[in-house]
Design a protein that fits this description.
Elements: E1 30-32, E2 37-39, H1 49-68, H2 77-80, H3 84-92, H4 111-123, H5 129-145, H6 148-159, E3 165-168, E4 184-188, E5 191-202, E6 209-215, E7 226-232, E8 238-243, E9 252-263, E10 267-268, H7 274-285, H8 290-293, H9 296-308, E11 310-311, E12 314-315, H10 320-348, H11 354-379, H12 397-404, H13 415-426
Parallel strand pairs: 3-6
Antiparallel strand pairs: 1-2, 4-5, 5-9, 6-7, 7-10, 8-9, 11-12
Helix pairs in contact: 1-4, 5-6, 5-7, 10-11, 11-12, 11-13
The chain binds flavin-adenine dinucleotide (FAD).
Length: about 425
């Protein structure tokens, strides 16, 4: 073996502490062997006292709201739980846009604070769908690419929890290949006239606005003729039809545009550069804690069920297979969590989490599918009953998750597409044309 293996750079896990401890003799950070250098680090993932205090504040708020009856914890609440009342309360706490720059009304707080906030929202299954998308990615797009007028008009509405913005990207024949989209936006005086159809638009029935990607130059190469708009759903010519998914949810919809006249001032960013803008947004869309913890209420309830339930005269937790499968879930959950923390680390440095998000999302959504399978197995036949049945254990969360989780590895980029990103940009393999 020739040469030394290069010392890898020490990751700084956000402002969480991670240090090489050279005070402890047997844990000196580097041991030098003839041919290799082995790096030993103590990874201390504790949060700062301020961060812990913030977590407690969020927990107390959520527990109070549950006691007041504002919501009942549910799976997929970040994407299917629509409660304007809850969103307004979160806004009143100042927790919408906490990482946004102060000049745009945000609190300019760290990505770690947002991580803590979202982790707790998901842990408690809080109904955050009215504001999740706008807070997560649309606000950022507006303050990054928008005009001053757009910032003044739209950002305060997001921060006050007054608008719900759906994501209008996919079309019947443009999913993974988003650049194949056909919805057209044609200039006409002070307007763009929109014609076409969007598919799987999140929040469709509830949204006040849609963030639309449309073709503005049909003659240009497909990635180069696309622009982004923010559109008020009250404009004439917009028809929304719910998509009833495999779980019976109507959280998504088809949106039809029939000669919709959108004032030109609602073009976001540069005309014909929308595809590159949206790629950046997608990194934020696919990389949050919601890709791991959307069904966390089921995980917690399942563990409690196993601790408290007796079957055939014995506690369920005594079954070695049950113990092993739950332990395996816990191991995978912690790995997924670390992958998502790494995403936050990258964002904290002001970079878009591209490869990191592409690594984390397939792993984490696969974990959610695994959780749903384990829950279904452990709960047995009763576990297949829907929440409407009085006999459904864990208020029917298992069958919901089992069916809903099939879509997790499609939405916001399929596993195949994301692994392609990891191969090309993570491993530097030449792209396949
Ligand atoms: C629950 C759910 C919610 C969604 N929410 C939204 C939303 O809010 N807004 C929105 O705009 N869209 C949304 N989508 C749409 C989602 O982004 C698309 O479903 C996704 O991009 C895949 O596109 P497609 O369904 O057209 O499948 P296709 O692109 O036709 O893919 C079909 C299969 O082929 C594979 N494939 C395609 N291209 C390649 C390739 N180059 N290499 C290898 N394999 C490939 C895919 O991985 C997939 O398995 C949602 C979808 C679901 C299921």
């Amino acid at each position: 073996m020739g040469g030394r293996v290069k010392n890898p750079p020490l990751p700084e896990f956000m402002n969480l502490k991670m240090r090489a401890n050279d005070n402890i003799p047997h844990l000196n950070p580097t041991f030098h062997f003839p041919d290799i250098v082995i790096l030993v680090v103590i990874m201390d993932f504790t949060f700062t006292p301020e961060q812990e205090a913030f977590r407690q504040e969020v927990r107390s708020f959520l527990e109070d709201e549950i006691k007041k009856g504002t919501f009942r914890p549910m799976c997929d609440a970040w994407i299917q739980g629509f409660s304007w009342e809850f969103t307004k309360k979160v806004a009143a706490k100042g927790w919408l846009g906490i990482t946004w720059p102060k000049e745009y009304g945000g609190l300019g707080r760290s990505q770690v604070d947002r991580l803590i906030l979202t982790e707790e929202m998901l842990r408690y299954g809080a109904p955050a769908a009215c504001h999740w998308f706008a807070e997560r990615q649309i606000g950022r797009a507006i303050y990054t690419y928008g005009t001053e007028e757009q910032k003044q008009e739209l950002l305060p509405k997001i921060l006050r929890g007054e608008v719900c913005i759906g994501l209008g990207m996919s079309e019947p024949e443009a999913g993974s290949d988003l650049a194949a989209l056909k919805t057209k936006a044609v200039e006409d005086g002070d307007f763009y006239v929109i014609n076409g159809q969007k598919m799987w638009t999140s929040c469709a029935r509830y949204m006040t606005h849609i963030y639309l990607v449309a073709r503005t130059d049909p003659a240009a190469p497909k990635q180069k003729g696309i622009s982004e708009f923010i559109i008020d759903c009250k404009l004439p010519g917009i028809t929304i039809r719910p998509i009833i998914d495999i779980t019976g949810s109507e959280a998504w919809g088809e949106v039809f545009f029939d000669d919709v006249h959108v004032p030109k001032k609602y073009l976001i960013g540069e005309k014909n550069c929308g595809f590159y803008q949206i790629l950046n947004q997608l990194d934020y869309e696919r990389s949050g804690m919601e890709r791991l913890m959307g069904n966390y209420p089921l995980f917690e309830a399942l563990i409690k069920f196993c601790k408290e339930t007796r079957r055939h005269g014995k506690p369920v937790y005594e079954d070695p297979l049950v113990r092993s499968r739950l332990a395996q879930l816990e191991v995978e959950f912690e790995v997924g969590r670390m992958l998502l923390y790494r995403v936050v680390q990258v964002m904290e440095k002001g970079k878009a989490p591209n490869v990191e998000a592409a690594i984390a999302k397939p792993f984490c959504t696969t974990w959610e599918q695994h959780l749903a399978s384990v829950a279904t197995d452990i709960l047995g036949l009763y576990g297949q009953l829907w929440k409407e049945s009085e006999y459904a254990p864990l208020i029917g969360m298992a069958p919901h998750s089992f069916l809903a989780s099939k879509g997790y590895s499609l939405q916001a980029g399929t596993n195949e597409i994301l692994k392609g990103i990891v191969a090309a940009r993570g491993l530097g393999m030449p792209a396949i044309t």
